[in-house]
Input
Amino acid sequence: MLLPLDGSPAGEAALSLVLEIAAALKAEVTLLTVIESSRRVHTIGGLDFIRFPEQEVQKTRQDLSDYLDCVVRKFRDRGIEARREMKSGQAAEEILKFVKGAGVRLVAMSSHGKTGLREWVFGSVSNKVLHAGKSHLLLVRATPDAELVCPR
Output
């Protein structure tokens, strides 16, 4: 099983279900986070990429590394084999590459449930994984008032 996490409460929406499913099936879980070094923005000239300062990227990498270590411990405390992976790039693309390369059978992730022009132009990660992925996908709607399992 693959559980992509971004370190946000909304990103953890599928976490409790993955804990239950993995425990019941004795499945191994990989926790994946993708560090993005740029953000897509809509400008007058069209879509453009704005690069984050390297210092900010490194701080994010360290924060998310600590966060993933904590979440892995939560799984292992329940007797579930879990490991973590960190990739760099665009989230949806890296998730899809990982799924293909690791032979993942189930991806469980949260979705904000947003629709409309903004999502059509920018594309959501869950939408891209849904339409381009080849594995089973469990989407869980994010809740706005959730708290992090491992506060950063």
